[in-house]
Design goal:
Mean pLDDT: 86
Number of strands: 4
Number of helices: 20
Strand content: under 5%
Largest sheet: 4 strands, mixed
Order of helices and strands: HHHHHHHHHEHEEEHHHHHHHHHH
Shape: elongated
Helix content: over 70%
Bound molecules: zinc ion
Radius of gyration: 24 Å
Length: about 450
């Protein structure tokens, strides 16, 4: 009866997956060659009249206007892409319903087999392939041409497309399993499917988070042990000081896709893993790497993974409740036109997709604010763990390659899933101002370490 709801849940879970991946791994991209650490600001720290606001402005002023304009343009373009992606998807889903393609895909699945779960999987496969094709022009612009235009991508078209196809394959298989479960629930529990569907989706989300580092991430990148003790040992020492029992640090060959710098600490049930990407190693000093890793350890120590699952759990339950009401309303109104009347009818899946996309589109600022709050917490944790406020500020400037440094307040609230450069640098400089005495002895040595 309520099969359509299942589709929505599936989409919600997929969306949540991609969002939470971003959320848990603070991306620290950088394209610029490392600049010498700022002597100006480092020396100021010795002074007793260190002004965090002035120090923040001095850091921001280090980015030349043309670079600033470029990163502002890249980031602001992203605001519009949120809208275009939503609108294009909405048009595609409505097209599938209005033209009867969705009903035809269901018919084909039913002709191939009488076994319901396989019908669900076959419909899902057709649906994913068709929608991927129809949204491909925007996807290739956003993911390939635009990234190259701004110097953020390293892949040629073939390998890029290969990664996209791998991603599609994963979505077909993993999403197909979730869809089979959700439609099974709708068939058996026509009245309460939305509650059980939300539970199943949350379980699925947890399962995918669990297997992601071990089974999914290695499909796209290679992970090797970091052997250089000059970098590895301080990281492991900081990890031990914060209760993370890792014995190795791993390097991800992210440079095969991107120039962005990132790192993460991940793992459940004694599989803790500290990972940094090769861009971080190439472009940052040891002090900057420590600042980044302190932030990532903050995510881990403060259980941001688990908190994120809880947060998305609430969103998913509310989302299912919304799906239930809104799908019934839409099917009553337009069901005749679309040739589909019940939630359990596979042909109504595009409606659920449309409703889920709408739901998450509207929730974008809330989603961003949740993520940004956790990122800020991790920043503060990282400052205390790594005690490298100037290195933190330098890394924040490198993030300006792809994230607007100094947005307005409302802009930051609506669109930022990480704090802006200004917010982060100010937090670092305020921390520095309040710990000047403790830092006094270390300052020189740190500021002048060679960049990796
Ligand atoms: Zn982060």
């Amino acid at each position: 009866m309520h099969r359509r709801m299942m589709f929505l849940v599936f989409f919600a879970a997929l969306l949540a997956m991609s969002t939470s991946a971003v959320l848990v791994r603070g991306q620290v991209p950088t394209t610029a060659a490392p600049q010498a650490p700022t002597g100006l600001i480092a020396t100021t720290s010795a002074s007793e009249h260190f002004d965090p606001a002035a120090a923040t402005n001095a850091y921001l002023a280090k980015v030349p206007p043309d670079k600033r304009a470029k990163s502002d343009a890249y980031f602001e373009g992203g605001y519009w892409l949120i809208l275009w992606n939503f609108l294009l998807s909405a048009v595609v889903f409505l097209l599938l319903l209005a033209t009867g393609w969705s009903a035809r895909m269901r018919g084909l699945a039913e002709r191939i087999t009488r076994f319901k779960p396989i019908q669900t999987f076959l419909y899902w496969t057709q649906f994913m392939v068709l929608t991927s094709l129809l949204t491909f022009p925007l996807g290739v612009y956003e993911g390939y041409f635009r990234e190259h235009k701004y110097g953020l991508a390293t892949q040629t078209f073939g390998p890029w497309l290969g990664d996209q196809l791998k991603g599609l394959g994963l979505t077909v298989v993993l999403g197909g399993l979730l869809m089979m479960a959700l439609y099974g629930i709708v068939r058996r529990l026509p009245r309460t499917w939305w509650i059980w569907g939300a539970m199943a989706s949350l379980l699925f989300l947890t399962f995918v988070s669990l297997i992601e580092p071990v089974f999914i991430a290695p499909l796209f990148n290679k992970y090797t042990r970091l052997e250089d003790p000059a970098i590895r040992d301080p990281i492991l020492s900081m990890a031990r000081a914060n209760g993370i029992s890792a014995k190795d640090v791993f390097v991800q060959d992210a440079s095969r896709q991107t120039t962005r710098v990132s790192a993460f600490v991940t793992g459940f049930l004694n599989t803790e893993r500290i990972v940094l990407n090769d861009n971080l190693l190439k472009r940052c000093s040891v002090a900057e790497i420590e600042a980044v890793m302190g932030h990532e350890m903050g995510h881990y120590v403060m259980h941001h993974d688990y908190n994120g699952l809880l947060f998305f759990g609430v969103l998913i339950v509310l989302g299912f409740a919304f799906l239930r009401k809104s799908s019934e309303w839409a099917l009553t109104r337009w069901g005749d036109k679309w040739g589909t009347h019940t939630v359990g009818d596979l042909a109504a899946l595009p409606l659920f997709a449309l409703l889920i996309f709408t739901y998450f589109f509207v929730l974008t600022p809330i989603d961003n604010t949740y993520s940004r709050t956790q990122e800020y917490e991790a920043d503060i944790f990282g400052l205390n763990a790594a005690r490298q406020p100037d290195a933190e500020a330098e890394v924040d400037l490198k993030l300006a390659d792809y994230r607007k440094l100094d947005p307005g307040r409302i802009e930051e609230f609506l669109f930022y899933d990480h704090p802006s450069g200004r917010t982060r640098i100010y937090a670092a400089m305020r921390w520095k101002a309040e710990h000047l005495n403790e830092l006094g002895n270390r300052e020189q040595g740190i500021g002048n370490r060679s960049k990796r």
